[in-house]
Design brief:
The chain has 103 residues and is α/β, with parallel strands linked by helices. It has a domain of 66 residues. It contains 2 helices and 5 strands; from the N terminus they run βββαβαβ. It has a 3-stranded parallel sheet with strand order 3-4-5, with helices on one face. Strands 1-2 form a two-stranded antiparallel sheet. A hairpin with a 2-residue loop joins strand 1 and strand 2. Helix 1 packs across helix 2. The radius of gyration is 14 Å and the shape is globular. The N and C termini lie far apart (36 Å). This is Aldehyde oxidoreductase. It comes from Lentilactobacillus parakefiri. InterPro entries: AKR2_Oxidoreductase, NAD(P)_OxRdtase_dom_sf, NADP_OxRdtase_dom.
Length: 103
């Protein structure tokens, strides 16, 4: 398996203090079938997030409707182990509600 370095994709600078690598990670797939319910292996989901951070990904996208809430939980669990936690940025979307799979 080829390892990557997210920084090689370049960076995006919002201001003097807010710089992210262009290669980010979207957490929508860290949920059950149809982006509903828990991922089949919660520890593996957190491992994926932790490994992404190790590879230099410092921008993560999530939403409370992913799962709902499961992607946020796995993101938090994975980032607790990240050595670069203070350099990670999270984009979150709120207000979208879902009542069930595929809705």
């Amino acid at each position: 398996m080829t390892e990557l370095n997210a920084a090689k994709a370049g960076t995006y600078k919002f201001d003097d203090h807010f710089v992210v690598n262009r290669l980010g990670y979207g957490t929508m797939q860290l949920t059950g079938k149809g982006t509903w319910g828990p991922y089949p292996d919660a520890d593996h989901a957190a491992d994926v997030v932790a490994h992404a951070a190790e590879l230099g990904i410092n921008f993560f996208d999530t939403a409370d409707s992913y799962g709902p809430w499961f992607a946020d939980r796995y993101l938090a669990a994975g980032l607790k182990r990240a050595a670069n936690r203070n350099q990670i940025f999270i984009s979150d979307k709120v207000g979208q509600t879902r009542q069930g799979p595929g809705i």
